[in-house]
Amino acid sequence: MPELSLRERALGFLSRREHSRLELKRKLAPHVEDESGLEALLDDFEKRGWLSETRFVEMVVSARQGKYGSLRIVHELREKGVSEEAIAAALPEVRENELETARTVWAKKFGKLPVAAKERAKQMRFLVSRGFGQETICKLVRGSTEEDE
User: How many domains is the chain built from?
Assistant: First the structure.
């Protein structure tokens, strides 16, 4: 079987799912001797619209929004090399439904408000691990509804 060219490898990765520039660069790096050739290929893909940071952010937000809070999603985007401008643009959409997402995730796991401090701490730790902010967690665990605000 013939060796795949760098361009074919990159197109193969992008045909399966969206990638950030950094992610694609890391995947292709072991197959490259010339770093500038890789940068030129990535620049070409961005120019053609095959590699899009905006589409990547939309994909991550859409996939994670039902399970995780804004802090976790933002952290994942930063890890994958997404620019701060793109993250800032996506943040309002993520935060818009954060309380409802937290309520859904919490109800699936626990279903009832904590009575003891130990149970409250357990529920709060769970929500923190899912990337929800302190304000959202406090509203949820104390049993606040959106009308209480």
Answer: 3
Query: Alpha helix locations (H) across the chain?
Result: 6-16, 21-28, 35-48, 53-64, 70-79, 84-96, 98-109, 117-129, 134-141
The string of pLDDT tens digits covering residues 10-61 is: 999 999 999 999 999 999 999 888 888 899 999 999 999 999 999 999 999 9
Any idea what the CATH number is for the domain that residue 56 is in? 1.10.10
Digit-coded pLDDT (tens) for 76-91: 999 999 999 999 999 9
Same domain, residue pair 1 and 47: yes
Q: Which domain holds residue 112?
A: 98-148
DSSP assignment, residue 116? S
How many Å apart are CA 20 and CA 90, to the nearest integer? 15
